[in-house]
Amino acid sequence: MDRKAYEPTQRQQQKWAALAPAAMPTDDEFKSDWARHHHGTTRGWGLGKRQWIIQNLSNHREYQLGLWQGRVDAARGLDYQEPHTDDENANAFNLGYHRGYTSYASDRNGWDQTTRQQFDQKYLEVTQ
């Protein structure tokens, strides 16, 4: 099957327009925040920074687009691929793509019947 690009709905476009990633705190800010929540110790603050970065990536429009593109590619039986490598939001897109591709089957079980039918009709049925 050929690759088909995901087309966001109007409602998704509106929701995604409101997403805004936060500004990255300095290492000293991460350390002091970590110490405040961990009884004064700064050991492990890097894990907190890593988690903050991953959480912040999900506040990008590109993350949401990658999430749905990964679902479309998984549904169509295409091999896993990370198409974005050169722009500034590549990490957000690739994280979303990875999560969408790898959890497609599980995510699909959570959709209602109407959503599954609309998705299948738009992305799985071959038009002549």
- Weakly predicted, low-confidence segments: none
In one word, what is the shape?
elongated
| Extended strand count | 0
SS-derived structural category = mainly alpha
Question: What's the overall average pLDDT, rounded?
Answer: 90
Largest sheet: none
Bin the strand percentage.
under 5%
CA-atom Rg in angstroms: 18 Å
Oligomerization state: single chain
Total domain modules? 1
Helix tally equals 7
Helix content: 55-70%
Q: What topology emerges from the helices and strands here?
A:
Layout: H1 10-17, H2 27-37, H3 45-57, H4 61-75, H5 90-102, H6 104-109, H7 113-123
Helix pairs in contact: 2-3, 4-5
Written description of the protein model:
The chain has 128 residues and is an all-alpha fold. It has one domain. The chain contains 7 helices and no strands. It has helices at residues 10-17, 27-37, 45-57, 61-75, 90-102, 104-109, 113-123. Helix 2 packs across helix 3 and helix 4 runs parallel beside helix 5. It is elongated and about 60 Å long. 18% of the residues are buried.
Task: Give me a quick take on this structure.
By secondary structure, the protein is an all-alpha fold. The chain contains 7 helices and no strands. Helix 4 runs parallel beside helix 5.
Provide key terms for this protein.
128 residues, 60% helix, mainly alpha
